[in-house]
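Hello,

Our lab assistant flagged a job as stuck in the queue for most of the afternoon. It eventually completed. Since we weren't sure the result was trustworthy after the delay, we are filing this so someone can double-check. Below is the sequence as submitted and the structure that was eventually returned. Let us know if re-running is recommended.
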Amino acid sequence: MVLAEPAERDKAYHRVVLTGVLANGEKLLHQIKRHEKVDPSNIGVQLEDVEATVGDLRLCYAEWFGDLKEERKKAIIHEVFGIKG
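-- returned structure --
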């Protein structure tokens, strides 16, 4: 997905896997936030870590499958990194 232009089959598989991982992360985050009897740190999980990971997965999904136009992507990269695409 990164080293070469992915085939449509690869993109479809990536979307399915990413959606599943994101859904499981959202579910875990929901459970941790509403569970009051168990401290997640006792099972080796920190709320902040799960929140950060789910946030990264959301961004990854938006990057790969969002509807951001190519021109806007190039403009953002140029604005942030000074790289012309």
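-- support follow-up --
The delay was a queue issue, not a problem with the job. The result is valid. DSSP finds three helices and no strands in the chain. Residues 8-81 form one domain.
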